[in-house]
């Protein structure tokens, strides 16, 4: 079989674009960007990947799509193979990684120049500016300066050179560099900041504070800072185990990913906060109500039950639009009690209703669903679905300018501009509180379960005994915590 021919990147146009393409990818992997870009850093440190990152992922970045769409992914692969010192591509041409370890950039302040005279942004794009400065020396980042309120380009930039000697050579140019016939005003970043300090009447000591802020408090994600923070704090203490009391039984509640069979599912309704096999079947403790139409008002059911002496009142599980509602009592319901209910509550919504028991299998399923819902509520915020990819990723933050897309020298703001998808809860069963009010997010739920609540304890401790456990303060939802 003939060897597959490699894409030609030697033509004049392709050669120029290949340089730009390689420069862009090398920027993504540079010390000045990689540890400050949350998304890239998570790819770089992904467990088991040995720092390899799929080239297809890199090629799908906004500033890379033009190269991929015009020349194809194989062309991008060949361009990356030309990286002299920073990057390497695997044998299959599928992944790329750094050849060297990431190092925390030092003396960025001293390697940075201030340059002014670029006019409006319509006359100076990020890519054009990078190309302009790259003709003088190797550049790590070009950060377009913007007004805080309007984000309008100020016509000036901070340019971080790879070496201090390159900065010196650039500032020593005579005549000064020109941008479209306009001679640039150039100076070190320190000289620019010192001038601003004097202009505002601040003491010279303010410059020291600015340098410290620049080196230690870079906005957005910072892998070095976060790593040091974790080292200082040490390992996080184990989270306490959570239990609920359900129909006379103590049940363990599992956080997502903590061990429940379906704990890693993305669809909330598939999560098992309480393992199904842990939920015992309490036979005869559940009734099914039908014939009430397309809606049900909980007080119309609970008030008559209260008059019959039922205490605590049963939990009603119902989804709007369903033709059935389930009443889950805290103990088996005797036949004479069922007969009294049938005699007392005969109509709802001016329609004749029917009361009946469930089959053993369906009753157990209803009780499992109820226990799972209780477990989710017991976890509080930890029981809520996570949105999108890993919740609050905030990619970027260390690329210079404030452009809303992936590209050279963007910084200041996090790169995560994608909106997080809100998890739908439209198909969750409707629940109610102890007073029969809907717990739809507008009113507080006051009933967790008639016969108990949540108990938290440290790992390794015995499960609290229901009969001998000391009284614990109740929270707003009736849960008990220790």
Automatic annotation (TrEMBL):
The UniProt record lists the keyword RNA-binding: yes
InterPro entries (UniProt xref): La_dom_prot, La_HTH, La_xRRM, Lupus_La, Nucleotide-bd_a/b_plait_sf, RBD_domain_sf, RRM_dom, WH-like_DNA-bd_sf
Polar residues bias locations: 366-375
Start-end of Low complexity biased regions: 452-463
CDD domains according to UniProt: RRM1_La (cd12291)
Subcellular location: Nucleus
SUPFAM superfamilies per the UniProt record, alphabetical: RNA-binding domain, RBD, Winged helix' DNA-binding domain
Domain XRRM: from-to ranges: 280-401
Basic and acidic residues: compositionally biased ranges: 225-234, 412-431, 473-482
Location of the HTH La-type RNA-binding domain: 11-106
GO cellular component, one term: ribonucleoprotein complex
GO biological process terms on file: RNA processing
Domain RRM: 111-174
Keywords linked to the UniProt accession: Nucleus, RNA-binding
Region (Disordered): 212-240, 359-482
Gly residues composition bias: residue spans: 388-399
Gene Ontology terms for molecular function: mRNA binding
Domain of life: Eukaryota
PANTHER family referenced in this protein's UniProt entry, alphabetically: ACHILLES, ISOFORM A (PTHR22792:SF140), LUPUS LA PROTEIN-RELATED (PTHR22792)
Protein's name according to its UniProt entry: HTH La-type RNA-binding domain-containing protein
Natural source organism: Exidia glandulosa HHB12029
């Amino acid at each position: 079989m003939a060897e597959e021919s490699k894409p030609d990147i030697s033509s004049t146009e392709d050669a120029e674009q290949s340089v730009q393409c390689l420069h862009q990818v090398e920027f993504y992997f540079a010390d000045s960007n990689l540890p400050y870009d949350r998304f890239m850093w998570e790819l770089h440190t992904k467990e088991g990947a040995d720092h390899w990152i799929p080239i297809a992922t890199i090629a799908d970045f906004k500033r890379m799509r033009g190269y991929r769409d015009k020349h194809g992914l194989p062309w991008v692969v060949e361009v990356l193979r030309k990286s002299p010192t920073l990057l390497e591509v695997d044998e299959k041409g599928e992944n790329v990684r750094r050849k060297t370890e990431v190092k925390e950039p030092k003396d960025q302040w001293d390697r940075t120049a201030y340059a002014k005279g670029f006019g409006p942004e319509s006359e100076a794009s990020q890519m054009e500016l990078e190309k302009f400065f790259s003709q003088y020396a190797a550049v790590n980042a070009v950060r377009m300066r913007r007004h805080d309120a309007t984000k309008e380009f100020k016509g000036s930039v901070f340019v971080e050179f790879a070496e201090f000697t390159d900065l010196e050579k650039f500032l020593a140019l005579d005549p000064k560099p020109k941008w479209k016939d306009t001679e640039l005003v150039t100076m070190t970043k320190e000289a620019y900041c010192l001038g601003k300090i004097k202009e505002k009447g601040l003491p010279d000591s303010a410059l020291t504070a600015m340098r410290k802020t620049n080196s230690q408090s870079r906005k957005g994600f910072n892998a070095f800072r976060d790593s040091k923070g974790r080292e200082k704090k040490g390992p996080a203490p184990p989270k306490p185990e959570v239990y609920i009391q359900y129909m006379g039984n103590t049940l363990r509640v599992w956080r997502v990913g903590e061990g429940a069979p379906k704990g890693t599912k993305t669809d909330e309704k598939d999560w098992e906060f309480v393992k199904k096999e842990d939920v015992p079947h309490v036979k005869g403790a559940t009734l099914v109500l039908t014939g009430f139409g397309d809606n049900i008002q909980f007080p119309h059911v609970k008030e008559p039950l209260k008059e019959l002496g039922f205490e605590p009142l049963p939990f009603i599980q119902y989804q709007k639009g369903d033709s059935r509602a389930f009443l889950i009592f805290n103990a088996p319901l005797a036949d004479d009690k069922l007969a009294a209910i049938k005699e007392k509550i005969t109509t709802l919504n001016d329609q004749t209703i029917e009361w009946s028991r469930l089959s053993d299998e369906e009753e157990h399923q209803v009780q499992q669903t109820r226990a799972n819902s209780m477990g989710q509520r017991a976890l509080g915020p930890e029981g809520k679905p996570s949105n999108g990819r890993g919740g609050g990723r905030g990619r970027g933050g260390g690329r210079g300018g404030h452009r809303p897309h992936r590209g050279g020298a963007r910084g200041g703001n996090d790169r995560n501009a994608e909106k997080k998808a809100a998890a739908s809860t439209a198909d969750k069963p409707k629940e109610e509180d102890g007073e029969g009010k809907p717990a739809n997010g507008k009113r507080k739920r006051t009933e967790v379960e008639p016969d108990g609540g949540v108990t938290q304890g440290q790992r390794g401790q015995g499960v609290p005994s229901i009969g001998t456990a000391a009284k614990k303060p109740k929270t707003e939802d009736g849960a008990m915590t220790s």
